[in-house]
Amino acid sequence: MSDIIIAEFMDEKPLEALRARFDVCFDPTLVDDRARLLDSLTAACGLIVRNRSQVDVELLDAAPSLKAVGRLGVGLDNIDLEACAARGIRVLPATGANDVAVAEYVIAAALMLHRGAYTSSATVAAGHWPRSALIGREVAGQTMALAGFGGIARQVAARASAFGMRVIAHDPNISDDDSCWRDHNVAPVAFDTLLAEADVLSLHVPLISATRHLIDAEALRQMKTSAVLINSARGGVVDDIALAAALRGGTIAAAAIDVFEHEPLPADSAYAGIDNVLLTPHIAGVTEQSNQRVSQVTVDNMLRALSEATT
Length: 311
Hints:
Layout: E1 4-6, H1 15-19, E2 24-26, H2 34-40, E3 46-49, H3 57-61, E4 68-71, H4 81-86, E5 90-93, H5 99-115, H6 121-125, E6 143-147, H7 151-162, E7 166-170, H8 179-183, E8 187-188, H9 191-197, E9 200-203, H10 217-221, E10 228-231, H11 240-249, E11 254-257, E12 277-279, H12 288-309
Parallel strand pairs: 1-2, 1-3, 3-4, 4-5, 6-7, 6-9, 7-8, 9-10, 10-11, 11-12
């Protein structure tokens, strides 16, 4: 049996350091074969996952020797943190490694949704010329509103400012007199103000009980009809059914959604047939460069944790 199980995809180059010290099983198909994943953990001291593997009590019971769980990313809603803590298992997110990738996704989505012309290739190639119908808006002079102001949101703020946007944010975990607001030229505001003033609302919060369906029908009604919503944080922060209804009804102008309550989306999801939404498959934080960084950070974290566990 292997010492370290890797159940989802990652860049393989950093694995050389792990394989020099441990027997490593790198099998990205394990995430889709729960029984085989559990069987593989009998003697494992380390487990590396992304967001799809559910590290719950059942899995932990199948891994009595587990010392550390490496997370290829930062969201931890798929990991039972209390159960891990009770067993003395360290949980190791790759903090900061994909911040740039997500920030670039947010800015690209804001530009695409405001300009509204980038999905017209087939129409133009077919000989049509919908020029007047595709006159969009600039983001310069508009308000980027950030729900949450951690590392990724701060990267978004820097890029939004470079595009001439005003940036506001709401984060109940950061006091209004914290120097981070001044350092990033961002105004802290109440949540209701964030919704009301947003031209672009970008979500950067974890999925916890307080943030589940943070953006629901009532929140959407508080936004401008010209506003756009971007969710690259966690599925469940947005009520998908409420958002789909708001997009169909013109409550807000458009949305870009990278994460969903249920992944992958079913063919008959609430978003089916909606034109003013950009859907992507949980890819905002994954680029060639970020995958390399995330993988390296995760391997480094795992090596450090296992070394400390044996000293």
